[in-house]
Amino acid sequence: PEEALAHLADHAVNAAAGRAKITAPWSDVLRWIERSPEYRPRIDAVRAGLAFPSKLGREKISPEFIERLTDFAVSPSQIERYSRCRFSWLMGSALKLGERRIHELDPRSFGDIYHELLMGYGERVNKNSAWETVTREECADMIRELYDRIAPRYREGLLKSPGGLTEYKAERITNVAAGVAWAVTNQVRGSDIAEMFFEAAFGRNAPFAPIEIETGTAGENITIGGRIDRVDIRRGEDGENAVITDYKSGSDEFSPDDVRGGWQLQLLLYLLAVSGKYRPGGVHYFGISEPHIEDKGRGDEYLEKELARSFKPKGSDAETNLEELMDSVRVRLRDLAAALHTGSASARPMTAKKLKPGTNLPLRACTYCNFKGICGYDPTISR
Asked: Do the bridges between strand 279-287 and strand 239-248 make them parallel or antiparallel, or are there none, so unpaired?
């Protein structure tokens, strides 16, 4: 009976997922177990487990509690997380739960440092109007100087901890950041960019107004605010166009299908934030990584071209496409704002249109979630 019960549980999972029905001989086994005082509780437990994900999150959180947690103000990354999975948003963004960070350089640390170095470099060169005159050596010197300023205060002096490994990582960080900064310089140099903003803030009491989304309840809106890594203003015959650039140390790629599906919202939210002053001109991810290029004996000129190509921003510049995507995001935001205001926090993780990097597996909100052991959602069961 024990072995039969284990196999029957597998058949029950497939039946719940709609992949197959429980047919003979397993339907006969099921009827026998249901009549058994000893094993009936076991199959009831299996059924309860299969029903658990569909019940989780039906009890909504009160709007008053949501307001206490958020003041009805969220960041672009938080509303994107809410779109992907409301339960994950509740745990990570609203209640601010998460894994305790260890005092070591992890991938998140690298991303933080790269980001701060590039923002500092861009702001300094932009302030001095030096995009056309700065040399590669000056670029590298500025990155090292910025690193020396950041290091003592970053995570209680983590970057100044003794040890050859940390020193090696520090050199690697500055070398990669200097390479990326020089690539940015060459892209700006000679372009038609008329004005640039780094860490451009939007929200309450910020240079750019917040994004206000109606919840469906009179006088109560959800406010979205944050900072945009870089906004380039290009002047043309049709006026001033804004191009958004978001620096990423991961492998994110812009996907219009994922924007329409609600998986990828941040870039379009940034574009919406500046749309009160500028026309949409483009959205890009700028990857921050250490490029791996084979020389193959082709010389420095070849390497420089390959480096420039590896740092090319990825996104969309098609104005018609952007307007359509912005409309799609506006509709999605109204639905999300109404759900958030009513306290919806169900475990209904979204699946992206693309695959998990380096695999043939679907990319789900569960893939990198720290709370999948809490919600009990089983991605193999389609609800």
From this structure: parallel
Could you tell me how far CA 247 lies from the centroid of its own chain?
Answer: 12
What is the side-by-side order of every strand in the sheet holding 239-248?
193-202, 226-236, 239-248, 279-287, 314-316
Alpha helices by DSSP H, listed for the chain, are: 2-16, 26-34, 40-55, 63-70, 76-84, 86-89, 107-127, 136-150, 164-188, 256-261, 266-274, 300-310, 319-341, 372-375
With the C-alpha atoms ordered 197, 198, 203, 205, is the resulting torsion angle positive or negative? negative
pTM for the whole thing? 0.80
Number of other residues whose CB lies within 10 A of the CB of residue 232: 21
Which residues make Cβ contacts (< 8 Å) with residue 295, sequence separation at least 6?
302, 303
**For residue 357, is the peptide bond before it cis, meaning its omega torsion is within 30 degrees of 0?**
no
How far lies 99's CA from each of 3, 84, 88, 91, in Å? 38, 20, 13, 12
Over residues 157-205, the pLDDT tens digits come to 777 766 545 677 788 889 889 988 998 999 999 889 999 999 999 998 8
Report the C-alpha gap between 196 and 372 in whole angstroms: 41
Q: What's the CA gap between 374 and 352, in Å, rounded?
A: 22
Q: Which of 109, 76, 78, 48 is nearest to 225 (CA)?
A: 76
Phi, psi values for residue 307, rounded to 5°: -65, -45
- List % helix, strand, coil for the chain (3-state, nearest 5): 50, 15, 35
